[in-house]
Specification:
Length: 283
């Protein structure tokens, strides 16, 4: 259906909201205006149970340099709710179909939490569609297993996040439901995100917060980095927890813009958080 428009919090970006059909489901999509010509569009992929609204602080800032698209994946936020949670591969397939419905032939994916394995799955399914991938807080794998360990990590993360995020997270999780939340979170913990990253053929930026309890220890990251291809960049943001896209949008935007433009990634002294590139040892 035709969408409505509203102005973003930055004042410079306007969002067009619409609902489109994907696999027989209504999927809610936000698209930034004005449209930016000559730059690959940026698509933001949210985490489990929560909506794309959690990614808007970063998307609004990136909307100044490229057209940004922020969907609510099927079953999440303002998209149609299923009677069960879709798994990560199914969500990736739905995202590929959504991009086709929107007429998007080439995109940069910016994922957070579960949005990272979904983005990696899209890059695996349709590599010609994905120009680059940004993985912010790429959860999943041995560090988050078993499920009870991951749930403790999530509880540890809650008091570390910006309190303002509760206004987004509480209604989203309430709508998604506790059963769907646990089931999809369990699938996320089993997904070998870092190992899948090694097989990704597109340039990739991974951004990790030092206060994120769901992230593996630095030695595990470096161990995998020894086997990684040369197009992987890892950046640490000091003081950030899991929801970096919401809590540190200015610093994250600065890092992403620098990486997309091929500039050296340095800390932005005017933004909260301290960014530093991890120099990866190669085999």
């Amino acid at each position: 259906m035709a969408g409505r428009r509203h102005r973003g919090s930055t004042g410079a970006v306007t969002w067009t909201e619409q609902t489109v059909q994907v696999g027989g489901l209504d999927v809610f999509v936000r698209t930034s205006s004005p449209q930016v010509v000559g730059r690959t569009p940026i698509v933001h992929v949210h985490g489990f149970g929560i909506s794309g609204a959690s990614l808007l602080p970063t998307a609004e800032r990136l909307g100044l340099i490229a057209t940004n698209v922020v969907p609510d994946l099927p079953g999440h936020g303002r998209s149609a709710r299923w009677d069960r949670a879709m798994g990560i591969p199914a969500l990736a397939e739905a995202l590929v179909e959504l991009l086709d419905v929107l007429g998007m032939e080439r995109v940069v994916l910016v994922g957070n939490s579960m949005g990272c394995p979904v983005s990696l799955e899209v890059a695996h399914m349709a590599p010609s569609l994905v120009e680059r991938v940004v993985l912010t807080s790429p959860a999943g794998g041995l560090h988050n297993q078993p499920l009870r360990r991951a749930m403790r990590q999530m509880l540890q993360d809650v008091p570390r996040e910006d309190p303002k995020m509760a206004a987004v997270a509480v209604p989203d999780y309430a709508k998604f439901g506790p059963v769907n939340t646990v089931n999809l979170f369990a699938e996320l913990t089993r997904f070998p995100t870092l190992e899948r990253l090694l097989r990704t053929a597109v340039p990739t930026l991974a951004v990790i917060g030092t206060r994120d309890p769901l992230m593996p220890p630095p030695q595990r990251v470096l161990e995998l980095a020894r086997m990684a291809h040369d197009d992987i960049t890892v950046v640490i943001i000091e003081g950030a927890a899991h929801a970096v896209n919401f809590s540190h949008p200015g610093e994250l935007t600065h890092v992403i813009r620098s990486w997309l433009d091929g500039r050296e990634i340095r800390d932005d002294p005017d933004e909260p958080g301290l960014s530093r590139v991890v120099h990866l040892p190669r085999s």
